[in-house]
Amino acid sequence: MTIKKAPNYWRDGKNFLSKKDKVLKKIINNSKGFLTTRGNPFFSLCRSIVGQQISVKAADAVWMKFEKKLVVINPSNVFKLNKKTLKSCGLSRQKVDYLRVLSKAFLDGDVNLKYLNKLSDEEAIKYLIRLKGIGRWTAQMFLIFNLRRKDVFPEKDIGLLKAICKQYKKKYPLSKTQIDLFKKKWSPYSTIATWYMWRSIDPVPVEY
Asked: pLDDT for 25-55, tens place per residue?
């Protein structure tokens, strides 16, 4: 069930960013909505794995087939589904393996969500990337879309980087120095800035 209530930091973050960044202020003023969450950690990680290294459009197409096969997305249902059926959704062999490993980790109690919630952003990322198939980007998507941490800057997210280039008239790809400058400029509300950057190139919010 989607939680359709803005994070408690959202209003302060928008005001902070609008005062600090004229480009972002315009995007914020022209965009509606806020970061929502389904409040379902397993769903969020599955969605992130499906979205790895492919476009949002392609990920949406695969996800629709995935949801149709499962009806209810939970560790037990994913683990029970055979590899052939998972592949028929458009998933690569690697992603099929990743989803099965993730399902087993949840079923075996290897993901301690209460403990995870107490960790700092970097500690939480390190905790998540212990799992096969969970890299830094996937962990950051989890921190944004499930934990709704306020200062996550997914430095290798192609959508974010292309949006920055488009809105700030920069040449793609950005250098590490340029990326670090945006990260510093938007902190401690990088999550909000990232969300609005995504909206600037795709008005339909993604839910992970």
From this structure: 999 999 999 999 988 999 999 999 999 999 8
CATH classification at residue 164: 1.10.1670.40
Which domain, by its residues, includes 77?
A: 41-145
Q: What Cα–Cα distance (Å) separates residue 151 from each residue in 75, 154, 203? A: 29, 10, 22
d(CA 177, CA 182): 9
**140 and 72 in one domain?**
yes
Cα end-to-end distance, the chain, whole Å? 12
Asked if 18 and 48 count as a contact pair (C-beta separation under 8 A), the reply is no
CA–CA distance, 191 with 193 (Å, rounded to integer): 5
In a domain, 5, yes or no: no
- At 45, the amino acid letter reads L
Has this prediction a pTM greater than 0.85? yes
Give the residue ranges of DSSP H helices in the chain.
10-20, 22-29, 41-50, 56-70, 75-80, 83-87, 93-107, 113-118, 121-128, 136-145, 158-168, 176-186, 190-201
Q: Can you give the length of the chain in residues?
A: 208
Q: Same structural domain for residues 176 and 110?
A: no
